[in-house]
């Protein structure tokens, strides 16, 4: 029997109402948003799983859904009924991956609804909303599982279904290490912006093999320009590394495959993605192709270079990370914008000079500095245009100019940061 979502949402609201942050504005926004993903975006399904729509789009993105519910993991001790809901979200994600591991977003039912009529190497299923291959979409459910295990000590969801799904993920990763020769995947969309489809007849920009996993689309859902999206490869390493000790003893072949992937990707990062930044320091590229080309930038969407400590790839004091952080939080990053009311990282997914609250919150989530965390919360709260929402992106000069009235991922990343201070 499904846990009653309304009752749990009320418990979350009651918890939020007892909390105080540093300012009235940050407190009020937290009170309004903490139950957002559960009360407004989540639906209980007959099979015991839970569907989480991304906000004002009715589909469930594997990445977005994970980050929408992730703050609730740390509330399980306070509100135990959250645990079966979060496990139910994980179950639905795993089943979506088994249905089509190349898809990034899914319908609640096999309704046949799609973002657009796309062409891919197989017919797009009626259950699939969009079939953009993104490494991070396969990693995000693994992050949810790991956070649940760390918080609760429970491991019952690491069952046959979980390890079978991980095996399917590994097969995709292994195939896409050899995208040019071993993969049949392609993606073509007509009558769209250039960054919403793949070039070269849907195969993407040519790449050389590097040991890393080829990636079709960035976490922004825009096409990867150079094939190897470095933060997503780092996300894969972080997840596989953390899962290794949990692999059952009888699954030795699975563990061997995981170890081989970690070693190969790490070598590829060392060989191709450690570069000299525009600042003159050594740090990480955002994308590479193995043919000598690099993309030096960062995008607001997670996984990003900024988010590396948050996703568990490296410590915040890692010298390469710190050098990269200085670069991406400066005008040297082509997607870093500064105006009269905001400064921070945006995306090619949204207009120039628009900053994403997700990236503003991630600045706080990747530093131990409490005043910085408080400042980032205050900055987000001061630019919500009195909507009590965080939005997707906001103009650096005018808070009344923003994209998306309701973007649950942004709301919940704000709450994630607020909970660190609580």
UniProtKB/TrEMBL annotation:
| GO terms, molecular function | hydrolase activity
What is an annotated GO biological process for this record, any one? carbohydrate metabolic process
Q: Can you tell me which residues the record assigns to a coiled coil?
A: none
Q: Name one Pfam family in it.
A: Glyco_hydro_125
Q: Which Gene3D superfamilies did the record assign?
A: 1.50.10.10
Asked if the keyword Hydrolase belongs to this entry, the reply reads: yes
InterPro entries per the record?
6-hairpin_glycosidase_sf, 6hp_glycosidase-like_sf, GH125
Q: Which UniProt keywords apply?
A: Hydrolase
Q: What protein am I looking at?
A: Glycosyl hydrolase
Q: What is the lineage of its organism?
A: Bacteria, Bacillati, Bacillota, Bacilli, Lactobacillales
